[in-house]
Amino acid sequence: MRAFRRTILAACSSVALLVVAPPLATPVRAQSAVAAAVAKPVSLPDIAIGSPNAPVTITEFASMSCPHCAAFGENVFPMLRSKYVDSGKVRFVFREFPLDIKAVAASMLARCIAADDAEKYLGAVEILFKQQERLMAETKDTLNSVGKLNGMSEQDVERCVRDQALLDKIAADQRYALETLKVDSTPTFFVNGERFQGALSFEEFEDRLKPLLKR
Fold this sequence. Notes:
Elements: H1 2-11, H2 31-39, E1 47-49, E2 56-62, H3 67-85, E3 90-96, H4 101-114, H5 118-130, H6 132-137, H7 139-149, H8 154-161, H9 164-179, E4 188-191, E5 194-197, H10 202-213
Parallel strand pairs: 2-3
Antiparallel strand pairs: 1-3, 2-4, 4-5
Helix pairs in contact: 4-5
């Protein structure tokens, strides 16, 4: 376990550890510029589901160690997907914003499991969120367990969390989110360029989506 911790600590030295901030919305006049900045390609392929031609794009920045992110994934995202994403009204983009080294390791594992397949990635994230308490308490065992469920050996998991190139891309994307998009907490959502920090209920999402879908 000590060796594993050294591996992750060494790998994650370039990833920011950030503090949760209060809810904040982006001024309307800046939404177009922000939307363009959010949509800009980053180092890792976007995890995106829904029609690329949907009139609304929701981009979530989440940490695998964030309880509010886990709650959103369990309680809000399934309804949002069923009603708006699967119907072609909303495109949903998930981006990593790890707040600590354990979240970094979990994000790296999800990327290795998915191999750029959005559904596989979201499936891994769902499992990791459901096991969040165990992930925080028994990181190595949890990562190995989730990896095994997806056909990975312990050696595969170890290689994954040692992948410096993957880590560098996660770190670069986080720096872009922090410096350009002013993301400094999780979850942070952008809805067609309007920024919301903190947990939103399904009803709060609907209040923001309905006016955009009427245009």
